[in-house]
Design brief:
Order of helices and strands: HHEHHEEH
Structural class: mainly alpha
Distance between the termini: 43 Å
Strand order of the largest sheet: 1-3-2
Radius of gyration: 19 Å
Oligomer: single chain
Number of strands: 3
Strand content: 5-15%
Length: 118
């Protein structure tokens, strides 16, 4: 029989999960708040790529691209696989691709002064 009351321990655990979720989201958004990383993620949203391709697309120096990719990999946002001697990068999931796409869509609206919509 339910008393209609929430167990304080359950409420505390739920609050902790909510805080952890917000902290994780802030970490992801902080990683996206770098121009080079955003370029890399946008390109990876279109398919796998190696460091040479990503260096060309970003216009950044190869060591810088490698460092950015390492941060993204350590954060669990990109995956790697070996193709012979090359390391090929890809996005870990479509949520990230959609997040990057939506951030760029918001930028398009701001730049072109487009009306808001859903």
């Amino acid at each position: 029989m339910s008393t209609g009351r929430t167990d304080p321990a359950d409420a505390h655990r739920s609050q902790q999960r909510g805080e952890a979720r917000l902290d994780a989201a802030v970490s992801v958004l902080a990683l996206l708040a770098d121009r080079t990383r955003l370029v890399l993620l946008e390109r990876l949203g279109r398919g796998e790529a190696d460091v040479t391709t990503l260096t060309e697309v970003s216009g950044a120096a190869r060591p810088s691209v490698s460092q950015h990719l390492a941060k993204l990999r350590l954060a669990g946002l990109v995956a790697t696989r070996k193709d012979g001697r090359r390391v090929v990068y890809s996005l870990r999931h479509g949520h990230l691709r959609r997040l990057v796409d939506e951030a760029l869509n918001v930028a398009d609206h701001q730049i072109a002064h487009l009306p808001p919509h859903d």
